[in-house]
Amino acid sequence: MAENEGRHYDLIVVGSGSGATIVDNALYQGMQVAWVDKGPLGGTCLNVGCIPSKILIFPADRVMQIREAEKLGVDAEITGIDFEAIMARMRRMVSQSRNHIREGLHRAPNLDFYEVEGHFLAPEERDRDGHLLEVGGEVISARNVVVASGARPLIPPIQGLDEVPYLTNENVLDLRERPESLTIIGGGYISVEYAHFFSAMGTRVTIMQRNDRLVPDEEPEISELLEKKLSERMDVYSHTEAVEVAQVQDGIRVVGRDRQNDQRREVVTAEVMVAAGRRSNADLLRVENAGIATDERGYIKVNEYLETDVENVWALGDATGRHMFKHVANREASIVWHNFAHDHKVAMDYGAVPHAVFSHPQIASVGMTEAEAAAEHDLLVGEARYLDVAKGQAMMETDGFAKAIVQRGSSQSHGAGKILGFHIIGPHAPILIQEVVNAMADEAPPGAVGRGMHIHPALPEVVVSALYNLREPE
Ligand SMILES: Cc1cc2nc3c(=O)[nH]c(=O)nc-3n(C[C@H](O)[C@H](O)[C@H](O)COP(=O)(O)OP(=O)(O)OC[C@H]3O[C@@H](n4cnc5c(N)ncnc54)[C@H](O)[C@@H]3O)c2cc1C
User: Is 43 close to ligand 1, i.e. is its CB under 6 Å away?
Assistant: First the structure.
């Protein structure tokens, strides 16, 4: 046992994002709980993820609505954008929520909060009653540990990058002044969301994406439409790998190499943002000391019950690297709590995991892409354009569409089996997808979505139409 042995708890929770659910439940049950987070309190979503980005994107959406009003006969002009005020509103809202969490810490007598980076101690230092964590020079122990330690930006090894100041999803939120120009390295959802925001604010944006297409996890035709629409507002270099970054007189030079023709692209930019993926925080926690296995990318391995391979240690959320979204982490936290508190275990169901990309146009998806589904199933595919329904026509929404991927069924089920995936690009996509998510969670057939009457004329008719138009895939 280590010399500076501290308190023993019923439960240690690492991570104050979705780990909060576990802490709340445990305190409600009267347990003695240690909560460890190096900060910022509240985790990624609140501080540097979903919440601040969506607070910023809301005014960006308004800007685009105003700019696009002309096609509807509205002659509108934006006479000014107060970037500083937009950023300040975001910071104020985030810090209010963070303060609210902090106030709650003081009201919980059974809770000790350690605002430091914690590390598991090596197995030989583990006492017989549980697992040991070193927290700021003190050693605490518990029989049960929940790891909800999240992830951080992945910084690719680009020559010269460590010698220039660059932005990530974290320090971008500290900006006071709008950058004149910004080059974003990476083309996933964080990149395209911030590209939309900055471009709407008036920044000249360049995206350098190594992959052949933006948001490569989406359907190819969705990536294609997004690239087409974003290219009207900014420079998008797909299949272009950033290979060198250097400070030059006029700013920061980013050199890219086109992976298709080996051509060199050079951009001189005021700011560089790296949005090239995420990496697990499990290394910071030194989970290997406790014998907790990680995969080849460093994410914690868990089984369907979200148990690690070490007894009484669970892991959830971004730390496990599967479907890295807040609603998934929250659901996993409920499952971990259930399995911790009950004898009867429940498996985490990833069958109908939705996600959204709050770019412009917006994107929302659930389940498999056509290519993924085709590898396992006999399929039917249905498509509908926003223009196919009256509301889409009223909006003059000429680009947006929805795509349904359905398992081919028997004649008793009118030829259609269960819904395997659904993908939308266009206005309100994250709202429209929700009824498909609910149907998929119930394993309901496609017809179930249209069974309830749909208000006419309203955009949900696009969803019903896509599921009605099922055909053999081309
Ligand atoms: C820019 C951006 C936008 C996003 N937008 C969305 C969105 O719109 N919708 C959505 O669903 N998801 C979004 N996400 C993803 C979402 O934020 C994450 O999936 C979610 O926050 C993960 O929660 P978590 O509880 O697993 O981890 P986190 O919330 O990251 O919590 C982990 C905590 O553990 C702490 N920690 C880690 N290691 C240690 C250690 N050794 N000692 C002490 N503390 C430690 C960290 O400091 C952190 O506070 C976004 C992410 C980013 C980066």
Answer: yes
